[in-house]
Specification:
The chain has 201 residues and is an alpha+beta fold. It has one domain: Cyclic Phosphodiesterase, Chain: A (Alpha-Beta Complex). It has five helices and ten strands, in the order H-E-H-E-E-H-E-E-E-H-E-H-E-E-E. A four-stranded antiparallel sheet has the order 3-1-9-10, covered by helices on one side. Strands 2-7-6-5 form a four-stranded antiparallel sheet, covered by helices on one side. The protein has a two-stranded antiparallel sheet with strand order 4-8. A hairpin with a 6-residue loop joins strand 9 and strand 10. The longest helix has 16 residues. The protein is globular and about 45 Å long. The protein starts with 5 loop residues before the first helix and ends with a strand.
């Protein structure tokens, strides 16, 4: 039998995983200040139950969503990602934006050549473990809030108005990326770090 970590032996047959870049503390601070501003604005829909605001500890930049993953796939992904060699990359944070149809408030992340190269290296590595890269263009972003149901359209339009003009958010240099597990809970999914991979080539 192939060796499996003790943590995996205690887990369910499958888990929901994704790969992402954690934010630097200075960027988290900037985003938290803007979220606080939106939540304290008199016209803000956060004073109703129309929105679910993302926990600050969950903010990240997704590189690839893996979804349901077996223990064997987990071991394969970890081995492949450990073999990657990539220099630290500069992450450029953009402006606030919305996906109106989905009811999502987010902060844009610029797709620099370095970030795209890392994302493509990650998806190429996980392909060897049975994961298929998405066929749509890579559009990294940081999700701040999601509308609950379809009843908050008016509140969402008000929230859109509050995001203009967008403030400046601090950029940072990413020195690692992370394999996360999405763990469901009554308060919504929480993200737990399973492995961290340095960027130090």
């Amino acid at each position: 039998m192939e060796w499996l970590s003790p943590w995996l032996l205690r887990r369910k047959p499958e888990m929901r995983l994704f790969i992402g870049i954690p934010l630097a503390s200075v960027t988290t601070r900037d985003l938290a200040a803007e979220v606080n501003r939106l939540q304290s604005t008199s016209r803000n829909p956060a004073r109703t139950d129309s929105y679910r605001w993302s926990a600050r500890e969950s903010w990240h930049i997704t590189l690839q969503f893996l979804g349901s993953t077996t223990a064997q796939q987990f071991e394969c992904v970890v081995a492949r990602l450990r073999a990657l060699h990539h220099i630290p990359i500069h992450i450029q944070i953009g402006a606030l934006g919305t996906f109106a149809r989905a009811g999502i408030l987010f902060v844009d992340v610029h797709v620099t050549p370095q970030l795209l190269a890392l994302q493509q290296s990650v998806t190429a590595a996980t392909a060897n473990c049975g994961f298929t890269p998405e066929d749509r263009p890579y559009h990294p972003h940081i999700t701040l809030a999601r509308r609950k149901g379809r009843g908050g359209d008016k509140q969402f339009r008000n929230l859109q108005l509050q995001t203009n003009p967008s403030p400046h958010f601090s950029s940072f240099t990413a020195e690692s990326f992370v394999l996360y597990e999405s763990v469901p809970s009554p308060e919504g999914s929480r993200y737990e770090i399973r492995e961290r991979f340095p960027l130090n080539a």
